[in-house]
TrEMBL record:
Name this polypeptide is given: Laccase
CDD domains with a match to the protein in the record: CuRO_1_LCC_plant, CuRO_2_LCC_plant, CuRO_3_LCC_plant
GO biological process, one term: lignin catabolic process
Predominant place of localization: secreted
Family note: Belongs to the multicopper oxidase family.
Record localization: Secreted, Extracellular space, Apoplast
InterPro entries found in the cross-reference section: Cu-oxidase-like_N, Cu-oxidase_2nd, Cu-oxidase_C, Cu-oxidase_fam, Cu_oxidase_CS, Cu_oxidase_Cu_BS, Cupredoxin, CuRO_1_LCC
Example of a GO MF term: copper ion binding
Cofactor(s) this protein requires: Cu cation
């Protein structure tokens, strides 16, 4: 009897072990980066794409899978691919930002990104991390539960990725270079897109408008990604409610709303039920703009949700989108989301904090340059940006991760990024916007060193220098707990009382409120060099970024670089 019970338990254990081993797979893709001529907005335009599609291919994996992506650069530009939101535990060489974790893949070269998806489920995405190529080089990365595991909510009838993009009727590399040459902001986009199409509200765009067919009474999941370069976006479906169930591949407490807002880099998974009369309904997105007095692309992209059996001649119903400057609606959405402690892969808030930082950021000026004509920025200078008054500058001869691994940091980066701004002032007072004594920030390549396993708490504080706006701050290599956020200047006495230490939202990209602040916390459990930067591509080349250097741990050491790592 005892022997039989032992054999039964042994069989169960072996079956469980076999299941855990066989449930993980190796998923392999080839990315051919190449130019493509497309027809948009009444014109032909040459763009850079992956495998000849816009957006690029959807990568679908399960938690625990290994990914191998062979990137073949057949374009005329240098390229890297960033796997936005993937932890890259002990695989920092695959993170992707150029000159941070690797040198670029030059035209004609190939590089294989290899990494494991661990402890994450939901919607992430991938995109180019060189210049403005991200405008057209991007796609969805969908992580489903392991076989045998399930969503923490009823499974939808069907799932659809919805990628919100931004389109220029021009060569985006030229657009960026022109802005950098003049010292002014680059030209604004010509359209927004849903799954690569502007939608029928734009000229010459009726053909190809994205359409999604649904069955009345069924519930669907939309995996929404803001892949736009420079704009936060409001998103609505006419006459339908949405239930938010995850953000940035982290489950949330269910939150019902008729409008969502996403900053560049963020993802939101929503459930919606086709519970309206049979017909056609627009889904639409338009920008949420926080800086006053600057030009912006004030257009609306649309797709169409078509109920099965709807008349083809029926005019779709249009949702009433918020005004472009509706900060109360955006703030309500961002601040009302909470995490799901009972959901899969929940990580409790670390209680003991070893490192405290206060990081201010915003727009700055840089000298126009010796012998240059007057630049097109304020006071005839060049637009710049900074964190704690340090304007981040990428190295060019060696990646920062290589310098870290080989202990060859001299001339690549220094480890003296400040924990606080150089001076305390009324950060969000717009009367300081053009105070020239505060506008110039030196160029530098500085990191903050963190001991492995240390917990870091950061106050992220927007400033009103040059312009008051919301900045989406993206953390490579880590998820962050968003403990609190608010408008105005952070109050170190009163605002800690607002900290949510029980079920805060977990993200990899936080839209710090316009003229406001956010407090985040994370544990440095991943050795390497990890970038933290504004995910508005107009601001990154100006210097709105920094990096953390996380030391090796006693049982967690960064492995050597792969043999095919591109050389500078």
């Amino acid at each position: 009897m005892m022997m039989g019970r032992f054999q039964f338990l042994l069989a169960c254990a072996l079956a469980l072990l076999s299941s855990s081993i066989t449930s993980a797979e190796t998923v392999e893709h080839f990315f051919h980066v190449q130019n493509l001529t497309v027809q948009r907005l009444c014109h032909e335009q040459v763009i850079t794409t992956v495998n000849g599609t816009l957006p690029g291919p959807v990568i679908s994996v399960r938690e625990g899978d290994d990914l191998v992506i062979h990137v073949v650069n057949q374009s005329p530009y240098n390229i890297t691919i960033h796997w936005h939101g993937v932890f890259q535990l002990l695989s920092a060489w695959a993170d992707g930002p150029s000159y941070i974790t690797q040198c670029p893949i030059y035209p004609g070269q190939t590089y294989a990104y290899r990494f494991k998806i661990t402890g994450q489920e939901g919607t992430l995405w991938w995109h180019a991390h060189v210049s403005w190529l991200r405008a057209t080089v991007y796609g969805a990365l969908i992580i489903k539960p392991r076989f045998g595991n399930f969503y923490p909510f009823p499974s939808p009838y069907e799932e659809f990725p919805i990628l919100l993009g931004e389109y220029w009727d021009a060569n985006v590399v030229d657009v960026e270079n022109q802005g950098l040459a003049t010292g002014a902001a680059p030209n604004i986009s010509d359209a927004f897109t849903i799954n690569g199409q502007p939608g029928d509200l734009y000229s010459c765009s009726q053909t190809g408008t994205y359409k999604l067919e649904v069955i009345q009474g069924k519930t669907y999941m939309l995996r929404i990604i803001n892949a736009a370069l420079n704009n936060q976006l409001f998103f609505k479906i006419a006459n339908h409610k949405m239930k938010v169930v995850a953000i940035d591949a982290a489950y949330t407490a269910p939150y019902v709303t008729d409008v969502i807002v996403l900053s560049p880099g963020q993802t939101t998974d929503v459930l919606f039920t086709a519970d309206q009369p049979v017909g056609s309904y627009y889904m639409a997105a338009r920008p949420y703009i926080t800086a006053q007095g600057i030009p912006f692309d004030n257009t609306t992209t649309s797709g169409i949700i078509v109920y099965q059996g709807a008349k083809s001649s029926a005019t779709p119903i249009m949702p009433a989108l918020p005004a472009f400057n509706d900060t109360p609606t955006a703030y309500k959405f961002y601040s009302n989301l909470t995490g799901s402690p009972l959901g899969p892969h929940w990580v409790p808030v670390p209680s003991h904090v070893e490192e405290h930082m206060f990081i201010t950021f915003g727009i700055n000026l840089a000298p126009c340059g010796e012998g240059s004509a007057t630049c097109a920025g304020p006071f005839g200078q060049r637009l710049s940006a900074s964190m704690n008054n340090e304007s981040f500058q990428l190295p060019s001869k060696l990646s920062m991760l290589q310098a870290f691994f080989y202990n060859n940091k001299n001339g690549v980066y220094t480890t003296d990024f400040p924990d606080n701004p150089p001076s305390v002032f009324d950060y969000t007072n717009s009367s300081n916007a053009f105070n020239q004594s505060m506008l110039f920030a030196p160029k530098s390549t500085k990191v903050r060193t963190l001991k492995f396993g240390s917990t870091v708490e950061i106050v992220l504080q927007n400033t009103a220098l040059i312009a008051t706006e919301s900045h989406p701050i993206h953390f490579h290599g880590f998820n962050i707990h968003v403990l609190a956020q608010g408008l105005g200047n952070y109050d170190s006495v009163k605002d800690p009382r607002k900290f949510n230490l029980v079920n805060p939202q977990i993200r990899n990209t936080i839209a710090v409120p316009t003229g406001g602040w956010a407090v985040i916390r994370f544990t440095a459990n991943n050795p390497g060099v990890w970038m933290v930067h504004c995910h508005l591509d107009v601001h990154l080349p100006w210097g709105l970024g920094m990096a953390f250097e996380v030391e090796n741990g006693p049982y967690s050491t960064l492995p050597p670089p792969p043999n095919d790592l591109p050389k500078c």
